[in-house]
Amino acid sequence: MTGVLEWARAENLQPEPITLDVWKQLPRDFCRLVEVVNGDVVRADPASHRHHNAARRIGAMLEAGAESHMARYSDGPLYAAVEQDVLLWELPRLTLRRPDIALFTCAPTGSGPLPAARVKIAVEVVSPLTERIDTTDKQAEYAQAGIPWYWLVYLNHDHVTTIQTHVLVLGHYRPHRRLTPTCGETLIDMPIEIRIDWPRLYGLVY
Question: Quick one: pLDDT at residue 12?
């Protein structure tokens, strides 16, 4: 608490809104610790091991689905990544989020955040610290940015219990399917065919 009280001074306020040009010049180590909402830097709390492992394993399933889709169809490239910076909008003030997982249509270049128009699915793994942000703030922001699909992944102890999928309809997300480990795997097709391997979502490490 003492550290917070010592920090709470007017001279420590963010001097001006963050722009995209400024964001690109910030140290990468700093950027990995924060997101930007309406030009203001917002601290992103570090994820637990189980949160990270859930994202990594679901990301691998999206990646496998993308590879299978590209092998069957010639409708363009697809990529999946964890913790990929996504530019939701630049004006009137920059808003940049980092979904736990994203499925998108262009290769990440490392030169800047991915435009939201390229994102097909944004996925957030819900934790007690992030539930309100994931289910209200980010859900509204991703919808406003036009991302077609939004998944919320819920954990209980060492495993994933539910994946709630949402589809964008008239600028708002509507619940689509509630996926649970009632069988060994679940095959879904939204917007591409993705196989959820539920046994892989058990045994997450704290």
Answer: 82
